[in-house]
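Exercise: predict the fold of this chain.
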Amino acid sequence: MFALGDAVELGTGDARKVAVVLRARDGDAIEVVDSSGRVYAGRVRLDGKHVRAVLEREAGAPRALRLAVTLAQGLPKGPKMDFVVEKATELGVAAILPFASSRTAGDGARAGKLERWRRIAKSAAQQCGRVEVPEVAEPIDFAGLVERAASYDLVLVPWELAGAGPLRERLPELIEGVRSVLLAIGPEGGFSHEEARALELAGAVLVSLGSRILRTETAGLVAYAVLLYASGDI
């Protein structure tokens, strides 16, 4: 924990971001979050290679989002998961759950990528002013995803073959009284019929995102943005 008046020296990565990337000048305003989640407003102090934040007052934490959404993302090929983690963090997801299913292609779960995704989530949280960094969980298989469904108030599965009906008409009723949501997005090849049915039997609601088939790295962000709008958070 920090105290007002402290001059907190920033670590190498944070110092570089403040001084080089953001090009902060001596005396610029800065916010610092301690290990307990307290937010402090202060001023930048530059001293050669050292970057410090002088804490002036305790700032109020941002209002919590109404829905705590876990984005379950089917593992995509190449660097697409980096993009999903970064943008989902910026939008405000509570957690990110990578998973593999029957149509997963490539080496999305390769060793070392989890640590990279967690670094990306931390950096994105700092960039957008989030106090908390969303958890990026260990990748699981499809059976594990189905098992997790019971842990949430609502499970939504965008699927290209779901029945028609605008989300704006369905969501108000679906999210009434809901706090925790699992938003499950299939990989590049989408969910198979069998997988969609398994999720539905586990209590998931299959929904349509319209007449266009979106890429896997686009679908989750669109669906989450719609949830934010429906819940009044944007």
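Check your answer against the key: The mean pLDDT is 87.
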